[in-house]
Specification:
The structure is a homodimer. Chain A is globular and about 80 Å long. Chain A folds into 3 domains: about 260 residues, BirA Bifunctional Protein, domain 2 (2-Layer Sandwich); about 100 residues, Rossmann fold; about 70 residues, Translation Initiation Factor IF3. A 7-stranded mixed β-sheet of chain A has the order 3-7-8-14-11-10-9, with helices on both faces. In chain A, about 50% of the residues are buried. By secondary structure, chain A is α+β, with helices and mostly antiparallel strands. Chain A has 14 helices and 25 strands. Helices cover about 35% and strands about 25% of the residues of chain A. At the A-B interface, strand 2, helix 2, strand 3, strand 4 and strand 5 of A face strand 2, helix 2, strand 3, strand 4 and strand 5 of B.
């Protein structure tokens, strides 16, 4: 067990902080609630960006950049939007040595400033759809912050699209929800439950908010991305109008969708163990680390052999991301430990005997399984092992979620479960905000979403006994 | 001639604005001095980022992310630094509905907040060098702004490194200067003159600032990137200290270097013509646009042939970035015009005759040269034409600079030249700030740099007659 990491069963939040510290993923900053993302943490974000950016472009989107600073008056144009974001705004009042005539807020999200631009650019149905994404930083002044999961400043992408009809906007909203699901499950190896939020939990100004809910190892839910159908709310507030083929002036239908650096926290809390970070191979910035172990008399041969292995792994069809650890003056155990704590999925140890046998010893990060592999077999076997790790991590996370997901029909059991640490509960709810609030006050559990991919059978609300159209997902959450 | 673009000889600044508008590169924003970078402008930035990011990594750097907001007190820790940046700061005074105890500034540059982090991370000579880059937005409250060239908010990369010795920091400063030179000349096709700034023009807090100066078509200089040797100034202000191998506590030596979205303006003003933008092929997000010209009766065959050409160009060793224009309801001239104004280096027109002849008509954006090319020859000829465009654009820019570069020894001629619109002047200067200021007041010309790649021969100052170690570069500038 790692001495620098508190075990999960003792204190899960402390374990989380310790894993970040041990992996050198992030650091505190002198500004309350802001974090420094260190190179090994940022590399994970770059890996996320690369996959998402490619997929956004494959689905017809282009990138652009809109201003960081937004006139305060813009936010007030959409009533629900300003109500939702006003308490979290950071405000610039002075600039260039003078007090500003109009206060500027640092973007908490960009629907307003982008809506203003779209109103200028969109004139005719021929200008639609507009499919733009932005990679940016945003600021939301949060009371309680936690690295990656909730920080005052965070990095994200925000997609903003405009369409001619409700149907097209709705199709875009659902399409991007599924892009996120693909990313979460097949790259991050995190199972998701997707569906709309109940009305009282949706994005301020949205018609509907779709979410991806994931279970962390402490059985709490993490909302990992959202996709909003904004209806005509922002189009009306910012006068995004177009002439349709019949020459009639219409308001556009808009969407927005975002995924943030919070997901790095999701990966840590889904896959990490008591020794630290474990990265899924498809996401890992370094997939394989080769650690040659030499003495002075065989240094040259051992390093030459390690380089041969590195070269072989660079020759596979989809070249692997491989690092060679040539650090001196460190004991082998300390060298291994670095890569364990940084979550590298596979380590290949190479010593003098491996030179003789033309082989290396592969050690999986997730289950510590060791396998001697001949150099000639590495090109085929190492990608297979990485793929197995990817699948096993997903299966393990799914098994955990299934073991802690319950269908409950009586509220006493529900309260009992939430008091004992929670889990995912599929239960009937009468559809009112009042009942949801009562449950939240009494148990801290909230409705995470109305799961789309599960059968929708009617029943009776576990609290009020009123009719319920379907079970919804309850959980304690981040 | 394009009707939507003012000719260069009539009004160069208006031409510049018109080209940006016509190419849909950027738009004004409701916040004074801030711009919206539209998709076609942002794609140029993405192309710049891709090349630079790869090169930074090849030279051993990693990316990280530091907070946007900096405590105001941090800036005051380095005396010259605060003096230089204080007039340009945007200040957050309120957040989360309350007045802040300490005012926060939006980063104008990140030496201070990064220095604070490095002081925590660096303990021993074994921790050095630290080689980190950040892609970020910064805010400097400017009085007079111009799209891309000088905006209140801009995007950039800022490298920040820490070293054990002066020599290593100086070597890094010069190495990155040459990375920028490679980028400017070989990707952007813009000739550069590199060298240190005179002391009174260096970065606030730096020991030495190295710059790349380029000539725009109006003969003004554009400073395109800078690389700073910061000495121990920030290390002392933020206590970045390390134990050397002899166990003595030493201050580190730091550098910083940056390149901004300003370079998009540099590309526009170096290569554009009276019809709009011209992009160098290696930088261009779209290198070749294929425009099929069909009638209803041959639509299928013409488009099929255009697709064959597209496929062929995707098969070359370094696949080309190709777009197929399938827009309907637009006259051919209007379709061509779009791509001319967006600066796409090569257009390939495909009509029914080209289907018969298994060919296409390639038209260069820079010199309008037209060449019929057989489909079978496209794979070899199109990359060659693109390479020729790249070389020709550089050669043309270099010829312009050479035609407008003068060695002058008398101040009367110098004043005369600057009054007539300027040019680059290599002249002797006595090395004092006073003389430089006198020249600037009388002519608006400033010393751009002390060119490193030109012979350093002594002479006499053109103004005071005092001894001068070498000629320096004077110009009017952006």
């Amino acid at each position: 067990m790692a001495k620098n990491i508190t075990p999960r069963h003792e204190n899960f939040p402390q374990w989380y902080q310790d894993v970040i510290q041990a992996g050198e993923l992030a650091d505190h900053s002198p500004v309350k609630g802001c974090m420094v993302i260190r190179p090994d943490g940022y590399a994970i974000w770059e890996s996320m960006q690369a996959w998402l950016d490619r997929r956004f472009k494959e689905t017809g989107h282009v990138n652009a950049y809109f201003p960081l600073l937004i006139p305060e008056s813009f936010l007030t144009k959409e009533a629900e939007h300003v109500e939702g974001f006003a308490p979290e705004l950071a405000v610039v009042t002075h600039a260039g040595g003078k007090e500003l005539e109009e206060r500027l807020v640092i973007r908490p999200t960009s629907e307003t400033i982008i809506g203003h631009a779209y109103a200028k650019w969109i004139k005719s149905y021929r200008d639609l759809p507009v499919l733009i994404n932005q990679w940016a930083n945003v600021v939301r002044w949060e009371m309680r912050t936690r690295m990656f999961l909730r920080t005052t400043e965070f990095l994200w992408q925000e997609g903003h699209t405009a369409h001619a009809t409700y149907d097209e906007a709705q199709a875009e909203t659902i399409k991007m929800l599924h892009v996120y699901k693909d990313f979460m499950e097949n790259i991050c190896a995190i199972p998701t439950i997707i569906g709309p939020k109940p009305d009282h939990e949706k994005f301020p100004g949205a018609l509907a908010t779709y979410t991806l809910e994931t279970m962390m190892q402490d059985q709490k839910a993490l909302q990992s991305a959202t996709s909003h159908n904004l209806g005509q709310n922002f189009a009306k507030a910012f006068e995004i109008q177009f002439l349709n083929p019949e020459n009639q002036l219409q308001h556009a239908w808009t969407t927005s969708w975002g995924l943030t650096t919070r997901m790095i926290g999701g990966v840590i809390m889904t896959h990490g163990d008591d020794d630290g970070l474990i990265l899924p191979p498809r996401l890992a910035p370094v997939q394989v680390v080769i650690v040659p172990l030499w003495r002075e008399e065989n240094k040259e041969q051992v390093i030459a052999h390690a380089n041969k292995i590195k070269a072989a792994l660079g020759e596979v069809l989809d070249p692997l991301r491989v690092k060679l650890d040539l650090r001196e003056n460190l004991r082998p155990a300390d060298r291994f430990f670095t890569w364990i704590q940084k979550g590298v999925p596979l380590r290949i140890e190479v010593g003098p005997k491996d030179v003789e046998q033309n082989a290396g010893l592969a050690v999986r990060r997730d289950n510590r399984e060791k396998m001697g592999i001949n150099l000639d077999a590495m090109k085929t076997q190492v990608p297979q092992i990485l793929e197995a790790i990817q699948q096993d991590l997903f299966a393990k996370a799914l098994a955990l979620r299934e073991a802690h997901t319950h269908e409950l029909d009586d509220y006493a059991s529900f309260k009992d479960l939430m008091a004992k640490g929670g889990g995912f509960v599929m239960a009937h709810w009468d559809g009112t905000r009042e009942t949801a609030m009562k449950i939240q006050e009494e148990t801290k559990a909230t409705i995470r979403c109305l799961p789309m991919e599960q059968p929708s059978l009617p029943g009776k609300c576990m609290v009020t006994g009123q009719p319920s159209a379907r079970r919804v997902l309850f959980a304690l959450s981040y």
